[in-house]
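Chain A, query sequence.
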Amino acid sequence: MIELLTADTPNGKKITIMLEEINLKYKLTKINIGKDEQFEPNFKKISPFRKIPVIIDHEKNISLFESGAILIYLGEKSKKFYDEDKRILINQWLMGQMSYIGPMLGQHHQFHYYNPGKSEFGEKRYFKISERIYKELDERLSQVKFLAGNDYTIADIATFPWIA
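Chain A, predicted structure.
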């Protein structure tokens, strides 16, 4: 069984979506990041950067942190949404989400939703970047059905919670 340690964030939602999509039995353990539970010593043992999500595959006695690594692992384990012949393209869009879409939209959310009025520079910068991201995604999806082509993949699962 897979145990998912997570919170209600876009990165946490990615893994819940994947586990539901592959119909894998899992246990959900909520980590209250508002109360700094991710900084507890036992959590640091399985997540050195003290970030959610984390999975523990109790069948193989391993734990994994970082949403992209977890999605790749679950895609390989289930043989779903991570077609071996298309992995280069899938990985490209997955890494784009992890290095660009998520961090930039996360900054936008920080300045516009959680700390509005504290940095005009930050608000303008990340609003402009967010607009560009949505435009780039719209452009891509006008050419293909899903980010990595015509099949639904872990790249789509990773991106959806950030843009929904």
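The chain has a mean pLDDT of 96. The two ends are 29 Å apart (CA to CA).
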